Amino acid sequence: MQVSKEEILHIADLAELELEENEIENYIVNLQDILNFANIVNNAPVEGVNITIGASESKNVFRKDEKKVFDNIEGLLQNAPEQDRHMFKIPKVLN
Amino acid sequence: MNITELTVHELQEKLKNKELTITQINEAYIKQIKEKEPEVQAFITDLTEAAINQSKEIQARLDNGEELGNLAGIPIGIKDNICTKGVKTTCASKMLENFVAPYDATVMNKVNAEEMISLGKLNMDEFAMGSSTENSYFKKTKNPWDLSRVPGGSSGGSAAAVAANMLPWALGTDTGGSIRQPASLCGIVGLKPTYGLVSRYGVVAYASSLDQVGVLTKDVQDCAMLLNVIAGYDEMDSTSVDVGEKDYTQALQKDIKGLKIGVPKEFYGEGINEEVKVSLETAIAKYKEMGAEVEEFSLDIAQYALAAYYIIACAEASSNLGRYDGIRYTYRSPEAQTLKDVFKKSRSEAFGSEVKRRIILGTYVLSSGYYDAYYKKAQQVRTLVMNEFSKAFEKYDVLITPVSPTTAFKIGEKSTNPMEMYLADICTVSINVAGLPGMSIPCGIDSQGLPIGMQLIGKKFSEETLIKAAYAYEQETNFREKYKPTFKGGVQ
User: Would you please indicate which residues of B are annotated as catalytic (active-site) residues?
Assistant: First the structure.
């Protein structure tokens, strides 16, 4: 499995990560190693086997769509790097 | 009497007989933390100061004749990915260095309802990604049996603190072996319950379909007692399963005559250290002697399960860690000018290299063109693994395997080669992939004086069977009385 520099930069972009030049080479090697190993799944006898998405039985869990008041808004907002009048603050998006 | 060497059920006995008080117990642990923590480095947040007052308050209420629960005032430690209201929950990451959860995890509510006293939040691999606790942003925890070695991971702080008698027990989480492997490397008992038995509400998500909260204790009886506290249905976790109220201490029985034990021979193959194999063989012989029916069989899924595990875990991680955007969770890059910068620079600066590696792998296997070849295949392998285990449990009550291919390795030995570290999870991950319960108990010591663990695997919600099998073995072999951590190998 060969991973190109363009590919790793594309993947990093999708993941909202900026890689330093010295990280790129490293991650390419790591990713190739891991993918070469993970490729084993393509030899597994899974012809016609269903996929599993979770460890417990998949069933929908419904509840009433009722409003609940979260009692610690201050505690929640205090983790924001920047906040203003009970809102998360971000840099200006529109010019 | 050395208070900190006692198990919780032994402490309860002494409390009942008025040989000890809650304040004495807490003071003894706090003293032990003061002495051992500089070497072991298991804690991220130290809560001992508050604990002194809490223990005095509980003692005063007891002295006034108030009836309290039988765990009131007992110390505990919490892995730092379990949310604690008003106390930092860092996940050992720069990203959450100053994060204070606005609510308690369900398991914390349960611990608090018992009025246990938390002595601290414990070190781990960043976001629980790792098998050595070397991926912590803050510190490297040392193994109390040899301070030049890792305690395992990712719940390495929990395991080391319990092994070093700085805590009587602790909570951890296990996504691919993160409770069982450190328990094994530190010579204590660790249980990863069946997926769905314990609520994940308020536990910072790494791989949601694999994560499970569990316990690290000094012996099997304590394990059953702490499981009693944390197990139970929770409507706040949509994957929580209602199996009714159970008292796991009822399973503490020594008679295992007729217990059917399966030994999957592929788990003893290439890469498993010879001393580990011998120790496991001795333990299995002991089970036979105790009246269990033991049979070797073939369960050829370990390699597939390991590959599927890394695909699924990383895919889920890449999605779960998307929430760290530089807006809501404490860290924002000081360099960020635009909104895109806020995302990219904050994430790039505050995630450690292992976390980025897994996000990249996860994003890759989910990306267009690779989804079918990796992610979908891994999900099919997951079904295969579950089916194979189901077949095995038609014949056997318990499966026995090693926990880790080797005993504790040197700090730095594997940290430069991620693939080598991943391969060492070979014996533990398939249990998470299948959602089964798995337990690690000490079964021997190698020629370097390092503990060896044995893994007991059961079918879903058969924790009682595991506890019974583990208890019977423990009572017969008495590992704790024979061996103790030596704290050798520290920096000279």
Answer: 79, 154, 178
> What's the domain count of chain A?
1
* Domain of residue A33, residue span: 5-43
- Per-residue pLDDT tens digits for B252-284: 999 999 999 999 999 999 899 999 999 999 999
Contact B385, B301 (CB under 8 A): yes
If we measure between CA atoms, which residue out of B112, B406, B384 comes closest to residue B279? B406
Model confidence band, residue A58 (pLDDT cutoffs 50, 70, 90): low
Cβ within 8 Å of residue B389, ≥6 positions away: B299, B301, B430, B434, B436, B457, B459
Interface with chain A: mutation pick from B96, B206, B327, highest number of A CBs within 10 Å: B327
Distance from CA of A30 to the nearest CA of B (A): 7
CA distance to partner chain B, nearest, from residue A24 (Å): 11
- Which residues in chain A touch residue B356, judged by CB atoms under 8 angstroms apart? 17, 19, 23, 27
ipTM: 0.95
| B447-456 per-position pLDDT tens digit | 999 999 999 9
Between strands B117-122 and A87-88, the pairing is unpaired
Q: Is A1 on the interface with B (CB under 8 A)?
A: no
CA dihedral over B177, B180, B183, B185, signed as positive or negative: negative
Predicted confidence at residue A1, as pLDDT, reads 75
Chain A residues within an 8 Å CB radius of B359: 15, 17
Residue A71 domain-assigned? no
Does A17 contact B at CB distance below 8 Å? yes
User: Does B347 score more than 70 pLDDT?
Assistant: yes
The verdict on B353 touching A (C-beta cutoff 8 Å) is yes
Q: Does residue A27 carry a pLDDT above 90? A: yes
Mean pLDDT of B196-224: 98
B44 backbone dihedrals φ, ψ, rounded to 5°: -95, -45
Judge whether A84 lies within some domain.
no
Give me the phi and psi of B309, to 5 degrees please: -60, -50
E-strand spans in B409-459?
438-445, 451-457
| Cis peptide preceding B154, ω within 30 of 0 | yes
In a domain, A72, yes or no: no
- Report the alpha-carbon distance of residue B433 to residue B301 in Å, rounded: 11
CA-based nearest residue in chain A for residue B97: A79
pLDDT of residue B456: 98
Domains for chain B: give ranges and CATH numbers: 3-299+385-482 (3.90.1300.10)
In a domain, A33, yes or no: yes
In whole angstroms, what is the distance from residue B169 CA to residue B216 CA? 6
Pick from A54-68, B48-62, B129-143, B264-278: least confident: A54-68
